Amino acid sequence: MLEQAALAVLIGWLAWALGGMALSPVPATALGAAIGLGAVTVFAGTLPIAALIALLAPFGVMLPALALRQVGAHLGLPVAPFSTLELAAFLVAYLVFLAAAMGAVPVDLYRFGYAPLPVALMTLAVCAYGFATGNLFLPLVAVAGQLAWALGWGSSNWFDHVLHVLLIPIVLTILAQRLI
């Protein structure tokens, strides 16, 4: 059910982004919400929805949160953007993390996402960073991810709740846009 809700948000975000090319933010948001909820509800149990979930799951907290954050920003909510340095540092760290998870780096960082103490320390570190920079988005994602992890919703690894491989093309796109 959580995967379907996350998929509804992402489909709604895509519809919002496409609708936003012709509509103002409020109608585009309504259209996105209707299409996201409608697609997951009407097509529940069908091959296209199952394929999207199989391809993209676990969605975790981050992807839906980023989508909702972008919609909120376009609706006028105050959203602090990530700096270019933050995005570049994240990209390098995440690529090293993925390399380690695939065995290319001799340290298995992914295993820390299964243990309570490392998860608590990582969540506290993200919260401290967020409070130091005045950006509450990352602490909210870290805590929501820890809550989902602790309650056993979805993956048994905290990293699956707060990271997603689609963050790589997202961050690369943002960084490329900033260069232009």
N-to-C span: 40 Å
Number of helices: 9
Structural class: mainly alpha
Helix/strand order: HHHHHHHHH
Number of discrete domains? 2
The unreliable regions are none
The global form is globular
Q: Helix proportion of residues, in percent?
A: over 70%
Structure characterization notes:
It is a single chain. The protein has 180 residues and is mostly helical. The chain folds into two domains: 2-74, no CATH class; 84-179, no CATH class. The chain contains nine helices and no strands. Helix 1 packs antiparallel against helix 2 (25-42), helix 1 (2-19) packs parallel to helix 4 and helix 5 packs antiparallel against helix 9 (167-179). The model has no long low-confidence stretch (mean pLDDT 93). Keywords: Membrane, Transmembrane, Transmembrane helix. The chain crosses the membrane at residues 42-66, 87-107, 113-131, 161-179.
Task: Quickly describe the structure.
The chain crosses the membrane at residues 42-66, 87-107, 113-131, 161-179. By secondary structure, the chain is an all-alpha fold.
